[in-house]
Amino acid sequence: MLCGAAALASCNLDTIPTDKYTVETFWETEEGTEAAMTGCYNILTNSALFGDSAPLLEETCTPNAYNYNNAGGYNVIAQGTHTANSSGIIANRWKKCYEGIGRCNTHLNRLPAAAVADDRRVQMEGEAKFLRALYYYMLVTYYNGVPLILEEPVYAHGSLPRASREEVVRAILDDLNDIIDRELLDWQWTKAADQGRATRGAAMALKARLLLFEASKLVNPSNDAAKWQAAADAAKAVIEKEAQAGYDLFGDYRKLFLPANEHSCECVFNIEFSKTKNTAVNSFNVYSVQYRNNAPLLDLVMDYRTTTDGAATMGKYDNLDPRFAATNFYPGSTFLGKANCPAGEVCQFTGFAHRKLTIYDAQKRDSDDSNGETNYMFIRYADVLLMYAEAINEYAGAPDDQAKEAIREIRKRTGVKTDESLLGDYRSFRDLVRNERGRELAFEGLRKWDLIRWGTFVEKMHNAGTNQPTENKYRNVSYTNYASANYANVTARHIYLPIPTKELAVNHALRQNPLW
Q1: Residue 218: helix, strand or coil by DSSP?
Q2: Smallest Cα–Cα separation from 128: which of 148, 110, 142, 146?
Q3: Threshold 0.90, pTM exceeds
């Protein structure tokens, strides 16, 4: 014992290991500094944010899709039966967002003394501030006000109370405006290896999306026109820089979402997935065509119009807006190499299967499709155009010429005619823009929050399942009964997620969201 005690006493317990990185040594080399920057991005590919099949499963919390086995914990959200103790997304989104914020804060704090060239240091500041803004955007969207931490993590941060929504939004805008005003990021990255990093245009587009939410009925019940103007101005600022940023609508809607066309002119910011790069893979393919736990519902199907702008007819899908077939496999389509596939083989639950974010068109099943490489476009240029169209119509009480042309161009890409009579007055244009967002952005993880922004979420959920087929060959009675019995549980309480119980247990200064 004495010998052991003497040996222990002679050791220096403060010695920093030299054979691996620590928080003290990470930024002492260029390689370590770059690794720290990569770590700020890597949280995005976690299943609590955009990894696994999260964007597709988000859609199953709306009348657009059905998740039969509660994958990721999303189906209990659709049912309105989730609690602060629920697993999956309820338990993990809060935690992972703060993990990302902690990495960004640490990186920003260590950057001034990091072993990296000055121009790269500036870029990294912009990237870290964009990512911190994105993580806080996710928190304020899903939880409302949250603890606001802008410094390298310390123990005391674990007992901070919630900041107000306004304070969090102001912090997000401060980061995004700093990137824009100081030009911390370029419009484009020149090296292929850097594709997928944040850009100045991405910061501007995220600002527009945030301000559009802040102008909505949920946050702006008095309908303050200045908030709509701010959202319109932010989206227009992106549009005015489309030449410098290289933004445009990609020519082929279906091919836009295939791995071969990632980082196209339409991509503003995406989450990177790859089998060969230093990042994760996703489950978009296997969830969509094997498990089918993001099965499209008729509420989505019947929202599509014909190419001549007529109403959809049950069982007649070949004359619909081409975005329908680009997004969904349907009864009679070629599915996994089988032509004229019947409804029960496309999907035993609803008769429809998701296509858009998969690699599948007419080919047979790929044995390696569980290692998905399709990037998820968090923001794309069509969304920016639609944001502007919505915001300027709400601000001015009527669309301007730029807003009208944005709608025409989006529809023209897939050969869909535009009824010009719908472009004239406020209400017709508002409904047109809302419907276009539903069709253009289906299965991109935005539907729930669009419905919430418009104040129609609860009503739409209560009506889910009413769009059921009248023909027996398409009817799925178990789903009909399920939707009628369960989606009606959703109330205004379910607009925001509850703060996980385990977070409340360790931070007694936190207060749960109202009605939870």
Answers
A1: coil
A2: 110
A3: yes
